[in-house]
Amino acid sequence: RYLSNIYLDSFDHEMVSNGYRLTRFADDWVVLCKTRNEAEEALNDARQILSKMGLTLHPEKTRITHIKWGFEFLGYKIKQGKGLKLPRHKIKKQPNFMNIYAIPTEKSVKRFMDTIRDRTKRKIPLSLFELIEFINPVIRGWGNYYRKAHVRKLFNKLQRWIVRRIWSHRFKRWRNMGWKKLHESKLYSDYKLVNLISLIPDLESKVASKG
User: Fold this and answer.
1) 136-165, pLDDT tens digit by residue?
2) pLDDT in tens, 98-116
3) How many whole angstroms separate alpha carbon 106 and alpha carbon 35?
4) How far apart are CA 159 and CA 171, in angstroms?
5) CATH 3.30.70 for the 1-64 domain, yes or no
6) DSSP letter assigned to residue 23
7) Greater model confidence, 68 or 180
8) Which uninterrupted H or E stretch holds 100?
9) Which residues face 30 on adjacent strands?
């Protein structure tokens, strides 16, 4: 990663000097353009600059797309939506006039769920405290990375799923009513389970009692 940042520094400077709005992390980059023609020119210039450096673009990972269809970048799916129909007094953030939003990619969500699933298998001999200590870093790390994206519904869904995974590990089957002995609120207050919802900046204070 660090070597690619150093090596591609000249690529950044040349693209920016040509008037393009470039965003790059390691060898992943995006150029924002106003028209299709500008995008094609940017792609052609990028090919020429990289060619002089002895590099080529990956044919399957390089494409021109419209923001309405979206694109994936650094684990995010970024696209244009219809926007939220909220009364003006309920809008607490700056207006998003273009209705651009970002969500975790399906691949990232699947990888997160696979990790939690692997760590909460019923055969793993951990106490409840140990189990939650085992999964908390995963929840906190993944949640903090996406906490400022459009994730409220997704985080709610995933948090309920995580709780069911814990019940399943603790009582072998979460539908066996054993969960009534271990209410969800106790997982947060007594066992310090990280709550994905509490990581969302504008919801932190509302769920502090659960975090």
Assistant:
1) 999 999 999 999 999 999 999 999 999 999
2) 688 899 999 999 999 999 9
3) 28
4) 18
5) yes
6) E
7) 68
8) strand 100-104
9) 23
Q: State the amino acid at position 99 in one-letter form.
A: N
3-class SS of residue 29: strand
Q: What is the dihedral of CA 7, 9, 14, 18, to 10 degrees?
A: 140
C-alpha to C-alpha distance for 119 and 198, rounded to whole angstroms: 22
Average pLDDT over residues 35-50: 96
Distance CA(15)–CA(43), nearest Å, equals 10
- Cα separation, 195 vs 144, whole angstroms: 11
DSSP single-letter state for residue 178: G
Question: Between residues 170 and 155, which one has the greater pLDDT?
Answer: 155
Q: Please report where in the chains the tokens 């399906």 appear, as a residue.
A: 106
Distance in angstroms (rounded) separating the CA atoms of residues 167 and 176: 10
CB contact at 8 A, 169 and 134:
no
**What are the backbone angles phi and psi of residue 80, rounded to the nearest 5°?**
-105, 130
pTM here? 0.80
Which run of H or E residues covers position 51? helix 36-52
DSSP, collapsed to helix, strand or coil, labels residue 34 as coil
Asked if the model's pLDDT at residue 208 lies above 60, the reply is no
Q: How far apart are CA 194 and CA 138, in angstroms?
A: 10
Q: Which residues of 22-48 are buried (b: 16+ CB within 10 A; e: fewer)?
A: bebeeeebebebeeeeebebbbebbee
140: tokens are: 């906190």
